[in-house]
Amino acid sequence: MKGVAMQGNERHGPDGPEIWIRGPVGEPEPRQREEGPTPAQAVVTPRQFAWVATHGGAGASTLATVFGGHDAGRSWPRPDQGEPGSVLLVGRTHAAGLEAVSHTLDIFRRGDAPPGLDLDAIVLVADAPGRLPRQLAQRIKVISSVIDVYRVPWVPDWRTGDLTGPLPREITSLARLTGRTTP
User: Fold this and answer.
1) pLDDT tens digit at each of 183 positions of the chain
2) What is the CA radius of gyration of the chain?
3) Which residues sit opposite 10 in a β-bridge?
4) Are residues 47 and 86 in contact, defined by beta-carbon separation less than 8 angstroms?
5) pTM for the whole thing?
């Protein structure tokens, strides 16, 4: 083997180490240009969400109106029919609401949710103004240990149906998640 030197266990030719390749080696085939936008032209659209109420009066309809997205009510969204597969579970912060959230979260944990759905977060809407009792705050802490939880404070205007006012600063992160850019 003319021009090949051995260094340790490696063989080196005049242009560097010798490389062994398994399989056929030939000229690469020219790549066909794919249809659609090139990476420089790619269009990014905000992710679409389905707001799923875990119990009656959870606030899913209000949140869908304020933040946009699909109001699925208490039904599972149907991605096969064009509805978003990204789910935001909605519940109130009272004991029954947190129990309903935990129950629905467990459905996802067991893998019993319909196929094609992704649980993105839990959205908890305040059931009254003021601080939560300790036992409810502890329950929320447990839920937030397994999934992202977004808290929506008590908004008096929403109670009377006025959804046009500015968003409370406490829900800026939820506005970012849903793609709502105006405060």
Assistant:
1) 555 455 555 555 566 666 555 555 555 565 565 565 555 555 656 678 999 999 999 999 999 999 999 999 999 999 999 999 999 999 999 999 999 999 999 999 999 999 999 999 999 999 999 999 999 999 999 999 999 999 999 999 998 999 998 889 999 999 999 987 654
2) 27
3) 7
4) yes
5) 0.74
